[in-house]
Amino acid sequence: MKTLRTIAGVRAHVAAAREAGRSIALVPTMGAFHGGHEALMRAAREQCDEVIVSLFVNPAQFEAAADLDGYPRAEDADAAIAAELGVDALFAPAVEEIYPAGFATTVRVAGLAEVLEGTTRGARHFDGVCTVVCKLFCIVAPDVAFFGQKDAQQVVVVRRMVRDLALPVALQVVPTVRAADGLALSSRNARLDAAERGRAVALARGLEAVRAAVEGGERDVQAVVSAGRAAMTAAGVQPEYLAVVNPETLDVIDEIDGRVLVVVAAQVGPARLIDNVLIDTRQVATHA
Ligand code: AMP
Question: How confident is the model at residue 287 (pLDDT cuts 50, 70, 90)?
Fold first, then answer.
């Protein structure tokens, strides 16, 4: 596996792969790889000829300097994992390569960037995500880019950006990878001590309670959200938000019908955690 540091290096690598008729996958990441990242890399390895993983802790999407400084970094271990999974190239640029002096462009998906995570983190969070993802798409020009369902709003925002700007890339969304007790894997979990790690499962418990209520025939959003909140509180965590939204527009809905996205965020000790589940009432087994 090659490690590439420059845009020119990536362009030369991709040009050679294209010349050889190879399809290109891009897996954008911020590193500190865990099973979630590995699932994305495996999916990319299966579907495309040339797999490029970007590793860039993007300052533009952090609202607090402490969160950026404290973000786990482990490039050597990450490179070993990527090589083991058959990744062809790791693109690990310096900040100045992506944001040279005078960088002045922002990509904003208005509306979608301001709700849910945008309420707490500010719309600038998704501006940072979209700007860097758009730039990575321009640098790599992949056929397919792989994202995790774990960051559901990110998927919705990036999908809209791709549609609005007619970016020539297909998006592939990989299901959330969880620990045995249900906690969604996240680089932020490394910040939890044993007691916090125990309580962190509350997010998954809340989502399970919502699903159970829907499977029990409940269609009123307030009622299912109450069930989810109660399960989280019982597990020792107060949700920052627990909401049922339209999976394309992220609009809050009142009545559950068809496909809905249930999203949750909570602070657990030093880590702000998010999780979500997609529910389709046409597919749930109803036990009512
Ligand atoms: P990050 O390095 O946290 O920016 O994540 C890079 C990619 O991995 C994003 O598309 C995430 O949605 C995805 N990802 C992170 N955690 C998981 C997980 N537990 N399951 C599936 N995908 C994940």
Answer: low
For residue 224, give the H/E element and its range: helix 221-234
Which of these, 206, 276, 264, lies nearest to 235 by C-alpha position? 206
Cα distances (angstroms) measured from residue 139 to each of 6, 54, 145, 214: 10, 11, 13, 44
Stated as kind and residue range, the H or E segment containing 23 is: none
> Which residues have CB under 6 Å of ligand 1?
29-30, 36-37, 39-40, 147-148, 150-151, 174, 176-177, 184-187
The preferred substitution site among 30, 40, 67 for testing ligand 1, maximizing ligand atoms within 8 Å of CB, is 40
| CA–CA distance, 258 with 44 (Å, rounded to integer) | 30
How far apart are the CA of 40 and the centre of ligand 1, in A? 8
One DSSP character per residue, 30-44 reads -S---HHHHHHHHHH
Q: What is the pLDDT of residues 232-274, one digit of tens each?
A: 999 999 999 999 999 999 999 999 999 999 999 999 999 999 9
Distance from C-alpha of 184 to C-alpha of 99, rounded to nearest angstrom: 31
**Contact of 250 with 153, CB cutoff 8 Å:** yes
Residue type, 23: S
Task: Give the predicted TM-score (pTM) of the model.
Answer: 0.97
